[in-house]
Amino acid sequence: MNDLSLVLIIAAAVLLLLLFIKIIRLPLKLLFKLAIHAVVGFVALFVLNFLGSYIDVYLELNWFNAIVTGVFGVPGVIVLLLFKYLL
Q: What is the largest CA-CA distance in the chain?
């Protein structure tokens, strides 16, 4: 094996590695964003239930509320409040 073929093999391996990282990075970025929304939404739901108990504003903790809060974060909590008190 000569030096040129070795350089081409290393270059191809590096390019494949960079392509693999680029393909994997997008789903990880989306997953990280979803996790941040979920944490912020659950904190908002907890604060709402804790502070809202003084003025009788609360949301039950069930699967539907957990999914909506986890996916949409704080806007999800607001929409759940609107549905509960306006409909």
A: 79
**Token pair of 26, please?**
């997008």
Could you read off the pLDDT of 25-79 as tens digits, one per residue? 878 788 888 888 888 888 888 899 999 889 988 898 888 888 888 888 889 889 9
Tokens of 22: 């680029």
Kindly give, in sequence order, each residue whose CB lies less than 8 Å from that of residue 72, ignoring residues fewer than 6 positions away: 37, 41, 79
| Sequence spans of domains, the chain | 3-86
Question: Which residue intervals of 1-62 are DSSP H helices?
Answer: 3-52
Burial of 45 (0-12, 13-18, 19+ CB in 10 A): buried
